Predict the structure.
Amino acid sequence: MKRSHLLFSLLYLALLFGIGVSSTNSSKKNYLCDQGDSLLLLQFIKHFEIHEADQFLCHGGYGMEEKLSWDESSDCCQWEGVTCDTSTGHVIGLDLYCNGLKGSIHRNSTLFQLQHLQKLNLAMNNFGFSPLPNEIGSLTHLTYLDLSYSRLSGSIPFEMSHLSKLVYLDLSFNFDGNVSRLLFLQNFTKLEVLFLSENSISSTIPGNISASLQDIDLSDNNIIGPIPDSISQLSELKSLDLHGNVDLVSSLPKFGWRSNHTLKILHLSETGIFGELSNSIGNFRSLNYFRLSKCRFFGVIHDSIGNLTHLKELSLDSNEFKGSVPFTISNLNQLTTLDLSSNHFEGEIPDAFSNLQEVTVLGLYGNNFTGCFPSSIVNLSLLEDLNLEGYSLIGSLPSVASGFQTLQTLSLSRNALIGKIPPWIFSSPFLTHLDLSQNQFMGQLPEISSKSLSFANLSHNRLDGQIPPTFFKLEELDLSFNLFSWSNDWRMPEVNISDLPIRDLRLSSCEIRKFPDFIRNLTSLESLDLSNNKLEGQIPNWFASVYWRNMYSLDLSQNHLIGGINQLWIPLLGYLDLHSNQLQGPLTVNICNSSQLQFLNLRCNKFNGTIPDCLGELYELSVLDLAMNNFNAISPTMF
C-alpha cells in the first residue's frame, strides 16, 4: 500500500513538473519554430529602431502601417514576415518589406546565422547609408534576395557571388561606391530576375551570365562597353532595361530576330547604342514597350514595325531617323504612347490615326513634316497632349472633331495653317493650354465654352474683330501681332470682377487706336502689354482709381500717347516701359511711390524739368533710360 502510494506521489510530481516546464517554456512542445532561430530573429530585430512605415511610399496609399511587433512568447513561425519549414521548423523566409526598420546591419548580426534562410526581403527600410556586410555571402541557401530602396551605401560586396542558388536578386537604388566589376554575377547560374538599377555601377556587362535570365534591369548606372552577345542568346528573356547608361556604346542586340521571341520590354533610352533598325524588328511580336529615346539610331523605319501589334509604347524620339513614317503604324491599335519627335522624318504625316484609339501621348514635333494637318488625329478620344509645332503644315483645321475629349495641351505654333479657328477647340472640356501662334488664322474669334482653358497664345496671326469677353476669363492670353481694331462703343458685359482672373494680357502690335476701357475691370492683372499699337490721347484717368493689387509689368511703349503720367504709379510695379510716345511734362515725386521699380524706360518722349532725386533711392532699380527727352541735367548726388 505504501509502495503504491509512493508511486502515485512520484507520478503526480512528474506530471506537475512536466506541466510546469511546459508552462514556463510557453508550450514549447506545440511550437513549430526552431527555438534557436527564434532567438536569432529577436537578436537581429532588437538592433533597429522600428517606426511606422509610410503607406504612400510603400504601397502608393495613404496613412501609416502598424509597427512591426513580435510576441516573444508565441511561435516565431506565426510572427509577421516569418516563414518556417513545416517539417524542421527552421526559418526559411524573412519578409520585412517596408516595416520601418531604422539602423545598420552589422557584420556580426545574427541575421547571417540563419543558415536555412531561402528568402530574404528587407526592401524599403532605412539602413542609414551603411555598407552591406560581406557576411551576406554566408546565406548560401538564398534563392530570393531583395534589399532595394534600403539606403545602403558603399559597394556591392564580392561575397555576393557565394549565393549561387539565387533565382531573384534586387539591389536597386542603393549603393554609391562605384562598383567597378559585376563578376559576381557569373556564379548565378540559376538567376532569373536581376534588378540593379541606380547603384553607381561602373562596369561592363559580363559575358558569362545565367542562361535562365528573364528580367534584367541595369538602368541609371555607369555601365560601359558593348552589350555582350550572350544577352541576345537569352531564350526566355522578357524584359531588358539598360536606359540611362550614356557610356554604353553598342549596336542593338539582334536576339536572333525570332518571331517567337518572348521579349516584352526593351528599354535602351539615353544610352550610346547606335545603328539602324533591321527590317526584322517586326518579328518581335510579343513586344509591349519599345523605348529607344535619346540614342544614336539612324536610317528609316520599315513597314514591318506594323507587325508589333501588342505594342503599348513606341518611343523613338531624339534620334537621327529619317524618311517617311510608315502608314503601317495604323496597325498598332494598342498603343498608348507614340513618340517620334526630334528626328529627321519628312513628308506628310500619315493620316493613319483613326485606328489608334488608345493613344494618350503623341509626339511628332521637331521633324521636317510638310503637307496638310492629318485630320484623323482629331478622332483620338483619349489623347492628352498634341504637339505639332514648328512644321510647314498647310491648310485648315477640321471643322468638326469627334475626339479630343481628354485633350489637355494643343500646340500647333509655327506652321502655315489658314482659315478660321474652329469652335471645337474652345469647347474641349479638359483643354488647359492652347498655342496656335505664328500661323495664318484669320477672322473673328469664337466664344470660349471650355471651363478648364487657362492659357492661350494666338499671337502672330491675322485675327480681327472684337475679342469675346469669355477670353478674359483665362489666366494668360497673348493676342499680339493680329489685326484687332478697337472702338470704345464696345462694352464689357456686366460680370463679377472676380470672374475675370486674367493675370497676363498681351495685345502688342495690333491695330488698337483707343485705350480699351474694359481693362479697368481686370483688377487681377499682373502684366499688361499694349505696346506698338496706335493708341492716341492721354492715358485714362481711371488708371489711377483702379486698385491694381498685383500689377507688376506695364508696357505702353511705341504708341502716340500724350500728356502726363502721374496716374501710372502703382505700388508693386516693377517694370514700366513708356518709350517712344509723346508724353510730356515734369516728373513728380509720385514716381517714387512705385518703390519696387527695377526697370524704367521713358526714352524718346517730351518730358522736361528736373529729374526727382528720389529716383536715386529706388534700390531695386537696375535699368533707367531717360534719354531723348528735355530734362535738366541730372544731379551728381542722385546715384
Notes: The radius of gyration is 36 Å.
